[in-house]
Amino acid sequence: MYEKQGRGVIGELIVHSDLIKKGYDVLTQDTGQGLIDLVAVHPTTGEVRFFDVKCVSRRADGTRINRVLKDNQKNWEKVSEKIIELVYVDIDTYEVIYPQRRRKVS
User: Under CATH, what is the fold of the domain 4-97?
Assistant: First the structure.
């Protein structure tokens, strides 16, 4: 199986590709340690979206483990008044799951 960092890189590439298929221009970070993994800009609408990519993990019973934003990401949301969207990717099936977008920064 892949090491954790390798899984993350593969996951980001899958989501990157999916966003391009959806018509977005996608910007990536270059360090692997940032608050945001991908920034997607729709060239027609001007919509800007910020993503934190999470690889799907499952418990022994098969249920998906849902991740949450880290405290520094939540703080960035408050300061910037922007929303970081969690997006899940299954690197074995290439399934990309965009949960319902949060509308309000809490």
Answer: Trna Endonuclease; Chain: A, domain 1 (3.40.1350)
Contacts (Cβ under 8 Å, ≥6 apart) of 106: 74
Question: How far is CA 6 from its chain centroid?
Answer: 15
Nearest partner of 96 among 20, 42, 15, judged by Cα: 15
Give tens-digit pLDDT for 32-56. 678 999 999 999 999 999 999 999 8
Residue 70 and residue 38 in contact, taking contact as beta carbons nearer than 8 Å: no
Structure tokens at 62: 């098969």
Q: How many whole angstroms separate alpha carbon 16 and alpha carbon 24?
A: 9
Give tens-digit pLDDT for 50-102. 999 999 888 999 888 888 899 999 999 999 999 999 999 999 899 999 987 66
